[in-house]
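Reopening this ticket.

The earlier resolution said the output was attached, but the attachment link was broken on my side. Pasting everything inline this time so it's all in one place.
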Amino acid sequence: MADIVVWPHELLTPEGCFPNLVPFTRSGGRTLGGIETATRTDLGFWSIDLNDIAVYTREQRQTWIAIRQKLGGKAGLIAVPAWSFDAAPYVSGEREPPVLVTHDDDTTFDDGTPYEQGSISVVSDGVTALGATVMRLRVIKAAPNMVGVRFSYEHALYETGPVISIDGDIWTVPVSPTVRAIIPHGADLEFDNPTCLCRLADDRGMDGGVNSIEFEQRSVTFSEAVDYWSDLAAS
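Inline output:
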């Protein structure tokens, strides 16, 4: 993939994360009763607001400046967290931390620390084509409900709608937006910490400075980098 910055969500933590789909609709004129009709023409794009981010330590400020410099306004690409633990299909029904594991031969990282693995495990069933609006999800470790959940694959973010069919552990569901790039069969889907490939919504979206407030907070808005996916599809 292109040179992508990953938002350091553990260092620059927002008090609120608001990932919302912006639909494309087309006016269909007014009915005899005077009501304007709207026709859905596309499955939209993501807008993500990170609100009230604590930026008061030197490390936080330096990291903020470094990200701003790297992005260069709307030109740069960044993988933005789309916190979805409020609707994530945790087995327990409550937010669960990542699981620390070793390899099958009990080995760890060179420094002796174990590997971090998400608590939710769902994979794609069958190849999902570019532009698809329906997916099959195979539940390995998750609550048995794939309705109204968000996940990502290679920083492409999706959310599911009402179930179409259930066949054992395979759920067929509609997804929005349209699938950005081919998702292979058996691909691990990111439910624990989904991300969305974005650009700053405004060139000056990461403006900042110094004031007398000890615990300064900043907010920033991102828009999905749909142009990246379009260029990738055309290549």
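Reporter confirms the inline version is readable. Confidence is low (pLDDT under 50) at residues 28-34, 36-41. Residues 131 and 179 are 5 Å apart (CA to CA).
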